Structure prediction request, 395 residues.
Amino acid sequence: MYGMEQINTATGFANAKFGSSKGQGAKGFDEPEIRILELSKYVIKFELLNTDLSVANSLRRIIIAEVPTMAIDLVEVKENTSALHDEFIAHRLGLIPLQSFNVDQFNLSDQCACSSMCAQCSVQFKLHAVCSDRDQMEVNTRHIQPLSDAPIIPVQYVNDKGIEEDPILIMKLSKNQQLDMNLVARKGNGKIHAKWSPVATCQMRKEPIVEIDQDKINRDLDIEKRKEFVALCPREVFAFNDYRNAVEIENSDKCIQCIECLRFAQANNLERAVKIAEREDKFVFTVESTGVLTPEDIVSRALQILMRKLYELGTQMKKYGVNAD
Amino acid sequence: MDNTKMNDNGLIDINEEDMDSREKPKVTYICGGCGKDNKLDKDSVIRCTHCGHRIFYKKRERKLLQYEAR
Ligand code: SF4
Ligand SMILES: [Zn+2]
Ligand SMILES: [Zn+2]
Prediction:
């Protein structure tokens, strides 16, 4: 698949950079690695291994705020006789996700050679809606018509069964009200305004480690207490095995470090029988796209941006005689 | 100063008549009671000539208006 391939090249790239100069990374990490756990049309889940928290967090922040996309940024109102005022509608239009697969062919407007606007840095749309023959009419993203053939259009969501969902509702008009606007989309990133952020969610967590000393727990606690211990975890990390009458770890991944189990152990003089910790070298990401880019594309673009930043930092450090390793 | 010269913002309604008679500039407002247009100058009583209502609304700017969608 196209997207996966891109991620693999991107991480290969990352490996080369992080790994090559050191052989083994700082703090004795092996080469960084990405393992994709789940990939769907709008969501990617992956593990980032063998890196520091700082690197994982940079990746998270770049995904949220530095992956460029397109969004409506200028609204010219010719006619608005609706109940909502101009600024209100302009703000709503700005938040509409636009398919940005071709965002690379555009310039950021402040870096463009033109003086105000051109085809290299902006895409024009028209929004015209009149409610003449009905009591009420919905204005949605289908009313936004591109004025050029640039491949930037409002996102059309598709559900799990591959059926198109309703277009995004912008507002409603009642009889004899009308809207006539010109819209200009520009390139930007989440640092400038959150409307350019490509993700709805970008969550990162360290993988939890839960260890119990089964022998000790199953010896020192009576059966009632064992059942109590299993029941006290709010995330059902432990299970009670009815054949062995023993406590077992069912799903340590679910642990939220609430330390309920530790407190129970302490109260029952079993301090060392339960251990809760987090892995410092493994991070689980959940990235949910708004539909402007595919989720795998967001991650691979973010990795490329991170690489470029590190490369720049490296060259600058060399220039000032700092050892870049 | 000639009043008619400063009236280039869309809010102020100048028609040929006003220009000829050199009257004070009049602005058209919409009556909140009956909805009819009323032309008022700066000294006139805020009162509808048709129904006597005392609340008026401004007319919408006719120019193209630009907004940042942020
Ligand atoms: S820390 Fe909380 S969530 Fe984690 S295993 Fe213990 S009780 Fe369950
Ligand atoms: Zn330009
Ligand atoms: Zn009136």
About this structure: The interface with chain A takes residues 60, 64-70 of chain B (CB under 8 Å).
